[in-house]
Amino acid sequence: MKGNEHIEGRGAQHQVANRFFELSYEMRDDFLNYCAAEGEEATDSRTTFIDTFPNTIVNKVNSPDVGLEFSLNPYQGCEHGCVYCYARNSHEYWGYGPGLDFEQKILVKRNAVELLEQKLRSKSWKAAPIVLSGNTDCYQPIERKLQITRKLLQLFLKYKHPVGIITKNALIQRDIDILEELAKDNLVRVNLSITSLEEKTRQLLEPRTASIKKRLQTIEKLSEKDIPVNVMMAPIIPSINSHEILPLIKEIAERGACGVGYTVVRLNGAIGEVFSEWIRRAMPDRADKVLHQIAECHNGTLNDSRFGTRMKGEGNIADQISQQFAIGRKKYLSGRERPVLNCDLHEQYKDGQLKLF
């Protein structure tokens, strides 16, 4: 790759060193010249899948402003390649980089189903919503083959346990049969991520995700089966998708969504470097403007870890975004509510079937 050429099909545009490693590597010009002369690829761009067998699978979420208490991630790393993804930083804890490694090296938790069943059968476990994809998408492309998420949902149904889902992949339509059964007892709620109505923007921000057309279709398919679906417009990025708030809320309301939420983009840790490199290649004409406006939302910095303000931002731009969502909810989603998930059934199904006594 030369100069500022954009890498198609990937969000991150370069490798980023792991901050926990003492050593790092760089791609030297003499090596690149050698590869060019020999007709060889300098890097392997293929996605690799690494089997792991963790000891636990349900994670306690301690952040006060995330909106979930427990999460479960069958995969670490995500081939979707969303350039803004906050989960990139977590890949460093697994020994990989937050740039291209995050998209190309996917850890598969092969014993996820067994671990969840142990958790749900545990005498000490008290039912509380467990959210699939609190970190990386449970419906990323490899799920089509491995079906770990589908098997997890079958367990939630068997034990009558509440589950939330966060995804931006239309593959969730495959599991409507299970979701419909869960919804009958108010045991499931889907959060579908849609950041833009413009396909070109989607392709740049989220190169390996489902198309906007398929995601809008997914809202309709779920709603038709009375499966509650909330849309997350996350993140809002000034001067990239901030002008689409009202049109998007109108569109999802017409498709049957029960609500909408949002976050303002923040570029913590290595994500600042990943995003900055990406935007200077993908949108060079507006790179400085976008980066300055993001900083304006976070007290002059791209990196914002402050509870209470980090998710929504502050200042004039953040206020304008908040006001648009308030207007959109009132105009297009008035009277619609997101149901509170049912935590009362699980205790009767601790052994996988209804207890009569």
UniProtKB/TrEMBL annotation:
Gene3D superfamilies in UniProt: 3.80.30.30
Name of the protein in question: DNA repair photolyase
UniProt-listed InterPro entries: Elp3/MiaA/NifB-like_rSAM (IPR006638), MJ0683-like (IPR040086), rSAM (IPR007197), rSAM_sf (IPR058240)
Residue ranges occupied by any Radical SAM core domain in the UniProt entry: 64-310
Keywords: Iron, Iron-sulfur, Lyase, Metal-binding
Lipid metabolism listed as a keyword: no
Originating species: Salinimicrobium catena
GO molecular function: iron-sulfur cluster binding; lyase activity; metal ion binding
A Pfam family assignment: Radical_SAM
